[in-house]
Request: fold
Amino acid sequence: MNKKPLSIVGMIAVLATTPVFAGVWHENAAPDYFDYARVTDVYPVTRQVEVAVPQNECWQQDVQVPVEPRYRSATPVIVGGIVGGVVGSTMGQGRGRDVATIAGALLGGSIARDISRGQTPAQTYTTTQTRCRTVNEYRVERRVVGYRVTYRYHGHRYVTRMDHDPGARLRLRVSAVPAP
Reply:
């Protein structure tokens, strides 16, 4: 009764063990083998290419540098704080007077500091600095992109193109394929 599953399993086993050939197989066909041919000429094949060559370009440039003052007097800030505190104490009453005095002193000191800095002209000096940038210069070069190789094998002359110079002899894969 269960002959169908057995026959399907049998067919799968036969197919799995049958060799598969990509081409036509002949009973007397010899497999590929390797041999060597004598190289008679190697000619480099070149191409012109444009190559970028980075160059560093530098120059001297005058620059204005600000001078930081070495000493700043605290007198304007102190006087501004006192004046602000006096003005603030005349405002308000009770605890509000204390807050107004503190706020007036801080505000007066800050205003005095800003005014004193604004009256001092910014001082600078001139110095020379080196500035550089990278620029590309372009040139045309000839580059080898392959080799035209001439070789002799069994009395016949052949030409091929390769990516490297093979030297004095060239390894060949020899295959016997029937003619149609």
Remarks:
- The longest strand covers residues 33-66.
